Amino acid sequence: MTSPSPAATSLPDGGEPSYYQRHIFFCLNQRENGEAACAQHAAQAAFDHCKAKVRALGLAGAGQVRVNKAGCLDRCAAGPVAVVYPEAVWYTYVDQQDIDEIVESHLKNGRVVERLLTPAGVGR
Ligand code: FES
Questions:
Q1: Ligand 1 atom 1: the closest Cα is on which residue?
Q2: Which CATH number is correct for 22-116, 3.40.30.10, 3.40.190.10, 3.90.180.10, 3.30.559.30?
Q3: What is the pLDDT of residues 10-37, one digit of tens each?
Q4: Is the pTM of this model over 0.85?
């Protein structure tokens, strides 16, 4: 096990340092039975674009941002979805411009992109 780098940030409550400042998870779930799934909405392309954008902006790595794949996040009816921690902000995106905005505004500058918020209460 490795220790967080010195660049890792601390939590506001003074708890253990977080290895990443922000973590975004993209649902890439596929289904063969015809039920809604994020993979039907170009989720893989959005994930790939986000990862490349975060790298290009120099935001990737310890103390900064991590972009991760996820399975079903159980909010399929609002898909494609991604969620950003530690804020636990859910996004429903449409295209790569939406991903660019999430990266620039939220992942880089900590400002939530209100227009892309997943509607409250929408689940599977
Ligand atoms: S398939 Fe994406 S949230 Fe369930």
A1: 37
A2: 3.40.30.10
A3: 555 666 778 999 999 999 999 999 888 9
A4: yes
